[in-house]
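Attaching the record inline, Q. Sequence:
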Amino acid sequence: MTQAGRQGSPRNGSGRGGNERNSSQRNPAQGGSFSGGSRGGAGKRASGFGGDRPHRAPKPREERFIDPDLAGDQQGRGAEAARGAKPSSRKPAARKPGAGKAPGTPGALKPKPRTGAPGAAASRAFGSERFGQNLGPVRKPARKKGPRGNVPQSELHDADGVRLQKVMASAGVASRRVCEEMIAEGRVEVDGQVVTELGVRVDPKTAVIHVDGLRIQLDENLVYMVFNKPKGVVSTMEDPEGRPCISDFLKNNKNTGERLFHVGKLDVATEGLLLLTNDGELANRLTHPSYEVPKTYLVQVRGPFPQGVGAQLKAGVELEDGFASVDSFRLVDSTPGHVLIEVVLHSGKNRIVRRLFDAVGFPVQRLVRVKVGPIGLGDQRQGSIRNLGKQEVGHLLASVGL
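Structure, as predicted:
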């Protein structure tokens, strides 16, 4: 290529367009910089200083706010993009409502409980107890609206007593540290008053302590047991006729020497749950009509069972000693010739279930009591006796206001 051709090419700027571009860059009056004047370093140095203009320090770069909760997620997505992987369609946890709020503040996400974590079950009253059935929280009756009298906790303090958390731990509620947390959270009542001070001392012999509505039984001499009575056993401790009775099943029990009461009675042909205890106050309340403790029975009668009979039993049937009714009626199972029914009632009249079904024309073929108040038989073997767990005792006492 000729010299003229090289001078006119746009690459070396000797053509028309190049001259105009260079002339504009070299004119300081138009505000241009000396960026294209020479090939050497002078041009680069001139471009850095900006001609005759005074030097101005560059503005500090404003850092973009980075949410720490989003940083890890964005970094992970950037790594996936660099590898060519498709971004995950999973919704990040930080985008959920309340994700950016501190734990414990209104609207913040609740942390998921760790299953199997040490002490997770112990935060509940008698949560670590493996004996007896777990009946859940106590259903306390609704409190009447009105001012509640606050008793100073100094009046509940007994200087010669034992620290409240130690009494609770000795009763098997939880560890002493967890008991202290329960007190601080206002979950403990002493003599009907909520206690939140850790220094309160009480007398274990006289104090009435509730945790989450559960009564703590501090008297170790009191016994509470469940007996699954078989058919043909008399509901007495002794029988002058020599028939099998309750004491025959207590011979191998460690509480043989205790004087026990059987709560209620079951006739000879009826099977199922009998409560045995030496707590006289509890036995009286469980059998008193005013407390209306529900009792659940499974009734087997001949089938088929026509519709409307259950409604008749719930409405009430006239017996020789007055009207009687069931609280609930439910058909459990039906086979050719037999029907299994569950009824719940609180009446303690003699042979009340058999008389009710006789009155509607369906004599009872088999009768089993499976539950008294909150206590149920479960899978307890017939003829066996078991001690109630402390949580079960608390529910039983709460059902009659103790």
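The longest strand covers residues 295-302. The first helix runs from residue 3 to 8.

More tomorrow.
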